[in-house]
Amino acid sequence: MLIYVIAGEPSGDLLGGRLMAALRQQTGDSIRFAGIGGENMQAQGLTSLFPMTELTVMGLTEVLPRIPRILRRVRETLDDIGRLKPDAVVTIDSWGFTGRVQKGCQKLYPDLPRLHYVAPMVWAWKPKRAAKLAKVLDLLMTLLPFEPPYFEKEGLRTVHVGHPVVESGAGQGDGAAFRARHGLADDATLLAVLPGSRHSETSKLLPVFGQVLHRLKATHPTLRVVVPTLPHLVDEVRQAARNWPFDPLVIDDGSQKYDCFAACTCALAASGTVALELAMAGLPTVIAYRLSALTAFVARNFFGFKIKWATLVNMVLDRPVMPEFLQEECRAESIAPVLARLLDDEAERQWRRRDMAVGMVELGMGGPSPGARAAQVVLDFIAQRKQP
Questions:
Q1: Any idea where the domains of the chain sit in the sequence?
Q2: Considering the entire predicted model, what is its pTM?
Q3: d(CA 361, CA 250)
């Protein structure tokens, strides 16, 4: 069996690598791969048609000059698919490129099964995209449990397979080892502060988070603060933390992140994937986020970007299990009292842990991994299509 797999960015490459590993396991390694991907997919036996980095472009000014090259790569990919005649084409996210390939397959190879992994956020903006995907694809696999109905009502077969964060190991940290390593007392109240993974996030959140800590100083003088960050941001974070109380411990060693989560009492974090990791770790967390005023205005008024919650656990449960302070509400005077109560109230932390666990089950935690579920969906669909 030959599966043609295409990813266009690192997150898709990670999903693709896990999918391919599961396909190999479920077929007893009697499977071949072709397509486009990065190091994770290549580790599973893929020889990429061309470097995936050519597709990893963001922003209008970056994309426009590359359009002729990208369109040429679409044609090359379609030619390669026609030459190899795979049993199915599985594209992963990056619909700007993968969608063009799938439309080309529909026109040139109409009998070839066309599957896509990761749904566009039609629940947040551009809901008409659901109908567009339904016209092109045979099957869609989603990360989120509430996504299938948006596409099923357009006639597209859709299966929720789970969010990849449940395969991250975020809930397996060693808190005692982390405290011992950094000389933190077993009974110390420990707060994790995570101001984001991009400069555009840290530049807006570091000042607010510092103000929150200054407000906590009066009520929690013995609090200890740990700031897990990334190597490309560590200088910026350390510079900001010099003006914070509690003598923060700044760590840019990613291997310690989940141990830190297991050691901490609560967290204050930027919205994003880290919120899911914190939920999986069972760490009660206050979420904050702030876009630039112009970006927020454009998103709301020109793209119709409307969501009730920013955090996926809150979305699937439709309640603020992880309290959110977004845009105009992202202020120290609003955040600090909620975080102070969370630090003090073990009963509240307990019910929030229970609810986060329920949310993570909704997102796929427990049972087969999302990669294994996706692999089974792919194999079952191919088998069904081959039946006379």
A1: 2-162+366-386, 175-362
A2: 0.84
A3: 32
